Fold:
Amino acid sequence: MANLNIDNTSISIVNSSSNSRPVFHSWSYDEYNQFMIMNFMANFQPSITYTVHIAYSAIIDRDLQGLYLSDYTDANGVSRTLLVSHMEPTFARTALPCVDEPARKAIFHIAVNHDPSYEVWTNGEFEHSDVLNDGGITSYFTPTLNMSTFLLALIVAPKSDFACRPYRFISSKNIKSRICGRIGILPQLTYADEVAYQSLNFFNQYFDIDYALPKIEHFAVPDFAGGGMENYGK
Structure:
């Protein structure tokens, strides 16, 4: 992890596949390796699955790394902000506690609390949403495939300014492809939409291996550190 504020009282084993749950004792930080080292009162047992709960917070900046804020000017000339992610190569550790190494993979279950005037895009497909007592919304998404942390993607943007072109369906597998971005530039993304659709369709047939996810979305954001990013599904 890096630059995360950990709530020490929150760390615990909340579930395991046995009746034994080691009690959390303390943790330390290896600054050089950016490791969070947790100590428990008992050893973990082989072949047992444990779930560790950690509550934490972090500062979201405009540094184009991890989860960051991106600024743009809307159609009325007003400065607005959206939330964007860029986890490659090692910035996932600034967004959440994780084993942030490409060889180590995980399934991500993503839920986002947000204002109802905002839309959320991520690796999985939208599943459902719940309305909170304060009027906010929690949006839930289908779990990802087993993947590296740097492939995690998240965008939270105003509905009034961002949207997507219609889905296009690839082959008999019903793989969905579309382009997203600011509403005012969607007509300019026709060519990108066509290339994305035709490319995936071509490679599915050429390699005789279908794209493994139900959707692929390409999102144009105002500022981004790389020329592009191969987030799985986004």
Q: What stands out?
A: The longest strand covers residues 66-73.
